[in-house]
Design brief:
CATH superfamily: Endonuclease/exonuclease/phosphatase
Order of helices and strands: EEEHHEHEEEEEEEHEHEEHEEEEEEE
CATH topology: Deoxyribonuclease I, Chain A
CATH class: Alpha Beta
Number of strands: 21
CATH architecture: 4-Layer Sandwich
Number of domains: 1
Structural class: alpha+beta
Largest sheet: 8 strands, mixed
Helix content: 10-25%
Radius of gyration: 20 Å
Distance between the termini: 21 Å
Shape: globular
Strand content: 25-35%
């Protein structure tokens, strides 16, 4: 698929929420928007919920000025979100999937931060049965996305050795009108590798199959559905859960109607990642698209480009973890940083007629 070469006509205006035109070398004019995903690294409030294991959150270990730490953490997350895609589009993401947050209250605080409040975001959130008390959510600019339906989809897992239930995050399905076009979003936070990658691999494969079932159900209604799967998958784009269970492709020329395209696989193959551990980069944060986003007819929104948002202010500046994502918490407490993950993003574009 050929992608139009576009240069930017930037229009600066406070509270400007409409699409900003891009003009190609051929004189064609395009609208461009950012869709993104961000793992917020333990965005918990300061209240101990007796119904959750939220005391495992690092903020609960902070003895002094916990409230100020929470305020700074929220502001840092808002600051990062406000910058994703802004250079290209003049505004933050129209739609953003979120992971590793405690409850609806912390999302409200995030959206009311001065960095994001002017963009009038709404949210879709359900409480998950996760053992640590963390959820996923979707936030969206109300001027450009209107949800029409939303549902949570539980992932039921059992430990193979003990037989005990493993409580993890639900998958969130939100359907709606993206600038008047129907688009479906599936937000994920698959089971972690804690306990060993091989031992926990079946859990992520089960999560992938659950997400694929959601995709299949949408495509059974409309094979041409525009679907975006996003999340912290705790696996790389070339792992079995993603390639085999979710059935993704990285070669556009091989895509068929009901296939899923994963642009993050190409990024991963170039050596880029969204999180690092023991001097090894992983790309757990991914955005995957259904085949209709790859059509060459730009009369409706199509995939344009993808990336990892790793601007300098999100990178650890010095020390043994120099170059890693500038995380919020370490063994010493609050660092003043952001998250141990970089956000992932894509741009979608539509020609103005």
């Amino acid at each position: 698929m050929s992608v139009p070469q576009i240069q930017y006509l930037v229009v600066f205006c406070f509270l400007y929420l409409d699409s900003q035109p891009l003009i190609s070398q051929t004189g064609r004019e395009f609208e461009i928007h950012t869709i993104a995903f961000y793992n917020l690294e333990n965005l918990f409030d300061t209240i101990n919920d007796p119904l959750k294991n939220d005391e495992a959150s690092p903020i609960m270990d902070i003895q002094f000025q916990r409230g100020l730490v929470y305020q700074q953490k929220v502001h840092n997350m808002a600051k990062a979100i406000a910058q994703i895609g802004k250079t290209e589009t003049g505004k933050p993401p129209v739609v953003l999937g979120l992971a590793e947050l405690e409850n609806r209250s912390v999302i409200e605080d995030l959206l009311n931060d001065p960095e994001l409040q002017p963009y009038n975001y709404g949210m879709v959130h359900y409480d998950s049965p996760d053992r640590r008390g963390i959820d996923v959510a979707l936030i969206y600019q109300k001027a450009l996305f209107v949800p029409t339906s939303a549902s949570r989809h539980e992932l039921t897992l059992y430990d193979r050795e003990t037989g005990y239930r493993i409580y993890t995050r639900d998958q969130l399905l939100v359907s709606g009108l993206f600038d008047n076009e129907p688009i479906h979003f599936i937000v994920n936070h698959w089971p972690s590798r804690s306990g060993g990658e091989m031992k926990t691999r079946p859990r992520r494969i089960a999560a992938a199959k659950n997400a694929r079932k959601l995709v299949d159900s949408l495509q059974a209604i409309d094979p041409y559905s525009k679907i975006i799967i996003m999340g912290d998958l705790n696996d790389n784009p070339n792992d079995r859960s993603v390639k085999v269970a979710l059935r993704t492709q990285s070669d556009k020329s091989k895509l068929r109607l009901k296939d899923l395209y994963n642009p993050m696989e190409l990024i991963f193959n170039q050596g880029m990642g969204s999180n690092a551990f023991r001097d090894q980069w992983s790309l757990f944060d991914q955005i995957i698209l259904s085949e209709p986003f790859l059509k060459q007819d730009y009369s409706s929104y199509r995939y344009y480009r993808s990336g990892i948002f790793n601007e300098r202010f999100l990178v650890t500046p010095n020390g043994p973890y120099k170059g890693y994502p500038f995380r919020s918490f370490n063994a010493s407490g609050f660092t003043g940083g952001f998250s141990d993950h970089f956000p992932a993003y894509i741009y979608v574009i539509r020609e103005r007629l």
